[in-house]
Amino acid sequence: MRAWFFEQMAMYSAYHTDKRNQMTHHVGVPMIVFSVMILLSQIPLYEFQSGVLTLAGLLISALLLMYIAAVPMVGLVALIIYSVLLYYAERIGGIGAGTAFTAFGVFFVVGWIIQFWGHAYEGRKPALFDNLLQIFMAPSFLIAELLFALGLLNDLKAEINERMPKYLPVENKS
After folding, report:
1. What is the pTM of this model?
2. Which of 31, 83, 139, 150 would you label with 72, given CA atoms 20 to 30 Å apart?
3. What is the chain's alpha carbon radius of gyration, rounded to the nearest angstrom?
């Protein structure tokens, strides 16, 4: 699992080498994740005495388990961030379907516009066009980038940098 996860992170990294692209993703990815949480909060799965488990909660729980299993520190930071996003997504979703669908549409479209703007700087299509699973890697990689900037997870950074060159365009390989 860890080796596969690191390989996916290396691929994601290779498609996001331009600092401007990286910056746009730190805005666009959370917007897209939040929008999907809002949409999926409209699908209740099970009602407990303390609340309702929605499809949003189930999907986020599965992603968090994957992140924690692969890179515990990334997973724990994601747990904090996703908990806040899920709380607000379910609050927005709880207002009503009309509000939820409107909020979903706005956050989703604006998030993707920001993403494509970043890829214009990169001069390369988004990684998910070559590997759909990359959509699940973006949030974890963005968290890893923040941790790298703080001087943490240097072994993970080295592992990603070692694996990344095979995913670079031919003209960028050295």
Report:
1. 0.89
2. 31
3. 17
